[in-house]
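Handout, section B. The chain below has 307 residues.
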Amino acid sequence: MITFLSSPKAFVGHAGKIQKNAILSWLSVHSYVEVIIYGDGEGVSEACREMGVSHVSDIACSPSGVPFFNGIVEHAKKHARNDMQCYLNCDILLTPHIANISSLITFPRYLVIGQRFDLAEGVDLTITPSWKQELTQLADKGLATLHAPTGIDYFVFPRGLWYGLLPLVIGRAGYDGALLAFCLSHDIPIIDGTCAIPAIHQFHDYGHVAGAKKEIWSGGDAANNYSLHNVKRGTPTITDAVLQLHDMALYDIAGEKNYLRTLELKLRFRWRFKLLSLVVRVLMRVIYPADISTSNRRTTTDVLDCF
């Protein structure tokens, strides 16, 4: 089955409520799932004990105290029960659909990512058999919307995929794009799971971070993520996936990709021709004024209709 990995905020107040709601949704995916929670924030140990999930308090962190993705996946490589693993943010609700993908991916290396639904402030949702009906009603009222393909909140991969990944701080700008950049550099197929895995983001603020959004997007950890992984500009997004999960099947969509965007990514990440990739990017922006790497080709209704 699958092992879920996450590093939460403190389990206090609203954050504690939505994080428990998220973890309970993961536990409901299948009786054989495993959940491992990393970090030593306030209330984390108690919440893990209450829900019966594994807790690893001692994990490598940046100087600011935020865990490194590398440390989390290295621990999971050695200790997780399942070969299929999923790192995800601790505010994301999942449905049992994610259990279906294990039978659809038969090659040894891959990364599955996808767009999420965003719940508006003050909206509560619990995953029950009627989740789609409830989410559709919220969408009709403008209280649930499909997030752009730039924000990635879950990553499904096989055990040991991240060997050689440079230090990467979770939850800071650049970290999701850096994981895609690693895959592009190592010819690892990126799979768009938007239409196979409903992922629902519960609203929260950024009061848990000193400096709030400014620190997340432009603080020291974000700057290191950007520079070490070459993702400050033209960051890879979900639209750069070459395979797609849909209708319980896996489809090759590489032929649908924009040629110049494909060339830019290969020059930049696989062949390491940074200047040439920049030339291609400039040319692409002249020809296509709208940024094709961030444009949303789906609507909220489109994705809801997949389930």
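Note. The mean pLDDT is 94. Compare this with the example in section A.
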